[in-house]
């Protein structure tokens, strides 16, 4: 797998609205699945599938603490990427005012 393949894998994983929300909620803290599930209005099975995709893309890492599985952002560059994306989206909306 080359760097372009990894880039595509990361962007594909972030390309789903639910997964993007999950990553944004994990930028500053580690959370267990139970806490994440309270923040989103869908089943734990659905949440687990999204977490699996994010883990397989290398974006998140998990750690079992007692009976709970905790997740956090593994790649610090993801936080910078999301910040840049937010700035780009703001710039996009500014250009619509022409």
Overall number of domains: 1
Task: Kindly name the structural category.
Answer: alpha+beta
Annotation, overall tally of beta strands: 3
User: What is the helix/strand order?
Assistant: HHEHHEEH
- The CATH class designation is Mainly Alpha
**What is the CATH architecture annotation?**
Orthogonal Bundle
Strand content: 5-15%
CATH fold group: Arc Repressor Mutant, subunit A
Largest sheet at a glance? 3 strands, antiparallel
Q: Give the low-confidence spans.
A: none
The global form is globular
Radius of gyration: 15 Å
- Name the CATH homologous superfamily: Winged helix-like DNA-binding domain superfamily/Winged helix DNA-binding domain
Sheet with most strands: strand arrangement: 1-3-2
Helix amount: 55-70%
Put simply, the count of helices is: 5
- Mean of the pLDDT scores? 92
Termini separation comes to: 42 Å
Organism: Acetobacterium malicum
Pfam families: HTH_5 (PF01022)
Protein name: Metalloregulator ArsR/SmtB family transcription factor
Keywords: DNA-binding, Transcription, Transcription regulation
